[in-house]
Automatic annotation (TrEMBL):
Xref: Pfam families: Aminotran_3 (PF00202)
Domain of life: Bacteria
Catalytic activity from the UniProt record: (8S)-8-amino-7-oxononanoate + S-adenosyl-L-methionine = S-adenosyl-4-methylsulfanyl-2-oxobutanoate + (7R,8S)-7,8-diammoniononanoate
Participates in the substrate recognition with KAPA and in a stacking interaction with the adenine ring of SAM (site feature) positions: 20
EC number: 2.6.1.62
Descriptive protein name: Adenosylmethionine-8-amino-7-oxononanoate aminotransferase
Listed NCBIfam families: bioA, PRK05964.1
UniProt xrefs under Gene3D superfamilies: Aspartate Aminotransferase, domain 1 (3.90.1150.10), Type I PLP-dependent aspartate aminotransferase-like (Major domain) (3.40.640.10)
Gene Ontology terms describing biological process: biotin biosynthetic process
Cofactors: pyridoxal 5'-phosphate
Amino acid sequence: MMSSNQSWIDRDLAVLWHPCTQMKEHETLPPIPVARGEGSWLYDFDGRRYLDVISSWWVNLFGHANPVINARLKAQLDQLEHVILAGFSHQPVVELSERLVQLTPPGLERVFFADNGASGVEVALKMSFHYWRNQGRAEKTRFIALENSYHGETMGALGVGNIPIFTETYAPLIQPAFIAPSPDCQQAEPGESCADVTERALAAMRALLERVASQTCAIIIEPLVQCAAGMRMHEPAYLTGLRALCDEFEVHLIADEIAVGFGRTGTLFACEQGGITPDILCLSKGITGGYLPLSAVLTTEDIYQAFYCEAPASRAFLHSHSYTGNPLACTAALATLDIFEQNNVIERNRQRGAMIDRLTAPLAELPNIAHMRRCGMIVAMDLVDDRAGNRGKPFPRAERRNQKAYRYALDHEVLLRPLGNTIYWMPPYIMDDDQWQMLADVTFDAVRFAVQD
Ligand SMILES: *Cc1c(COP(=O)(O)O)cnc(C)c1O
């Protein structure tokens, strides 16, 4: 048995092109074969295991092979695996839509489905543009995004992205967004508070809107945490201020909660903390508990009504994906929402906060760790140099240090996957106290190992 497993992983590099990877690097660190998952653990074939503290790319909320989700999916499998959603409907998609409307901020009343995060963002951008066009304001063709934003990697989504490693190469193919300063608290100048950064970012946004609002459809943001940028966090007050600016200047607010939704920031949705309702809300990743690809785009009755008429067809929102609203994915999402409700997950996560802060305190004291930060169930810290002349800055050749931390943690049963010089924890919500402690210990040792020469 072992040898046949061995043989498929050896064949991997002969056929597969892995995502987000310079394939040549696999010459020294081949892909890790995963035989099965259980709870927060991933297991290979040789008895090695890895604590999945990045939730398999930020999607898994309640562990691998979760018995509740598994049982519901198996039952749905015998009912209906998939059906076209144009002209047809099914129970899981209706029930999921109802529950999302009920759980998301008030005023979001219509749900449009797609099948992954980036396509959800494409839906949001097209919907906003098309709304204005239907209102006779076809001159609105542009978007505003934040510095360091990430909204996925299809062409439209890259247009509202601002992380060079993803966008630069494709720049000739992309219509770029206007970029506004990020409210990221780490950008505080000496003597400035986070509230000052918030105000400065809002003032800059106002200045930008004064110039370009007439040609702008929407502002798109990742509320509270810019995840792919390195878990950069901002104040809820920014959301409140931004909502007011969008109303004043007649542009939509698109909240991309693909990564931060479903409890990551401590509330079910990040927008709640700013007390706001966006015009369009994008959800994906955790929506199915990490089981199946699905995205939902929620919007207001006002936007919906702008498309509702007899003719012409071009006024209707014709966007479609083959697997739109897939019944199995919707069922996994319904089971996920049941777990939230039945286990009082948001409250239990909140109670974990003090314990997590206790665990991060020793790490924060390491001379090579800066910007220890937490927002709900996202913890992040930056690996920095502590040598005179470069103190507090990323190491020269930081990539090598991050790779060392990654390898060290893997060797010690923890799957950490640094983002640039940021080490972060974004674990499933089911980790027990021992697993949290192990995570903190291994991270501590991985940092100390990474900074040695
Ligand atoms: C991951 C992510 C996306 C894209 O989702 P995919 O399913 O990977 O296409 C969009 N926005 C944010 C904020 C994300 O973190």
